Amino acid sequence: MSRLRITGLSAKRGGTTVLRDVNLAAHDGEVLAIAGPNGAGKSTLFECLTMSVPFTGEAEIEGAPLEALDAVSRARALAYVPQRSELRAALPVEDVVTMGRFAHGNGLFGASSEDAAVVEGVLQRLDLIPLRRRAFPSLSLGQQQRVLIGRALATGAPLLLLDEPTAALDLRQRLLAMQRLRVLATSGRAVVVVLHDLNDVHRYADRVVVLDEGRVVATGAPADALSDDVMARVYGVRRAGDRFELANDSSGVKESS
Amino acid sequence: MNPSARSAVAPTPARAALAYGAAGLTVAAGIALVFTGEGAEHATILRLRLARAFAAVLAGASLAVGGALVQGLFRNPLASPSILGTTAGASLGGQVALLLAELVGLSLRPELVVPIGCLAGALASLLVLLLLLRRTEDLLTLLLTGFLLNSLFLAVGSLIMSFAQEQWQLGRAVVNFALGTLSGVGTPQLRFAAPLVLVALAMAVSWSRVLDLLLTGEREAKSLGAPVESARFWVVVWTSVLVAAAVSLAGSLAFVGLVVPHVLRPFVGVRHGRLIPACAIAGAAFVLLCDGLARALPSQGEVPLGVVSAIVGAPTFLVLLLRERARP
Lengths: 257, 328
Prior knowledge:
The complex is a heterodimer.
Chain A (H helix, E strand, L loop, with lengths): L3 E10 L2 E11 L4 E5 L6 H8 L5 E7 L2 E2 L5 H7 E4 L11 H6 L14 H13 L15 H14 L4 E5 L7 H16 L3 E5 L3 H7 L2 E6 L2 E6 L1 H4 L2 H8 L1 E4 L2 E4 L11
Parallel strand pairs in A: 3-8, 3-9, 6-7, 7-8
Antiparallel strand pairs in A: 1-2, 1-4, 4-5, 9-10, 11-12
Helix pairs in contact in A: 4-5
Chain B lengths: L2 H7 L2 H8 L7 H10 L3 H34 L12 H19 L5 H23 L6 H26 L3 H12 L7 H20 L1 H7 L3 H6 L4 H23 L5 H13 L3 H25 L8 H22 L2
Helix pairs in contact in B: 1-3, 2-3, 2-4, 2-14, 4-9, 4-12, 4-13, 4-14, 5-6, 5-7, 5-8, 5-12, 6-12, 7-8, 9-12, 9-14, 13-14, 13-15, 14-15
């Protein structure tokens, strides 16, 4: 059974349809990339899955309709990692990771001993021990990303949704982040990740779903789904040897000599 | 409990509050009274002062915790019941209730009418604010909307004051609301307000973990399992109860809800499980101190408590703000 199955999902934002009849499935142990140009509906898809944007159609986690799950059950089944957290308060790293244990409801006002053990394990695993007392907003973007992944792991959810986790990272941090996602999938989780960089899709994803104007236009292994035809139709680029160039350059941008 | 036993368990600011006052006692005699508790007349004075000190504790704790709650709800350390118009809404509610009770000739006692009016006013002001700010988290919009509501409620309150001026007693009660004072607080008001405050404080603490999650924004909080909609509803309800109880006891006291959580965060952290109890204690001490100053400052009668809390609170907040800005 698929960990996540979406059938005929459509969603509107401000009266405009941004997702149309989306179908996809994610399985345990795989990295499923969601790719597409800006405005394709990638982030909105995650907002539907976190119940922040209303949708029509079906979304099931392990066969159970998403709408039927209460907030706590949903948080135990699905962990969301935003591109950047909106947390601006000076909360220590350890407390941010502990937030992931909320849905487990142990300890009325703070973490139970079981929660503390899980958090300790996550801090060690993601090499966050030296940062545990640091205030979250004082960290670099790469460190913040690691903390957010730690918080997602602390939930114990078998399905991870990551929205452009490498967007603000330098090359080294990006490679580390992508390797981390691969390890998470190898440990049995289903990892669904929005990616802009198609090199990362080719290198780290098992499968990719390509969205364009809210529709799924291709799905499958990266080498198949990101065909020359799809690249031309969706991104307006064509392959020129080992790189891409604009398929029909009407941008008016000239290279300077 | 006899008066001396009562004073023995009271913390220092509370002892000072009991020992000092204008009712024909010198400070030395007041201190002696607290420790000896002799004489029926003195016992009456002590009872009045004890009620006043208890009211200061309740009002201070309520406003400071109310401040921590709205700051958590709006994810903004510059929010407070007085800046967002909640205190003015509660005050207006109390004034309207007093006026209506007088005009309609309700047989209800003022100690019952006033808190109900305050609660309705505080609830209405917070709900209007939430409705107006449904689609934005912008700080300037929040503060301007709060300023607008505050001005509106104060203007309507002034209108009511002008209606009430013909009747001296009603006029005095209405003016007291606007300026803030603890004089005249007695056991009937405390009997009504104390249980409300205690329940609301306990409920505020019970929402601590959800308020922590709300610091990350609605979407992240939801994804972590926080019941965001019910949290918003109940935090508004308990904040309104706290502010209403404080205003019904002490009238409008500015800056308590803004300054106290702000001062405490560097020491106790941003987690509401620690911040809320700390605010309750520090808020109580702050208003006790302000009330002591209100009684001690040279004046024909008493300096209004709201004036003292603003004079102490505004510069304190300015210093905190400047210090925060100067931080690298």
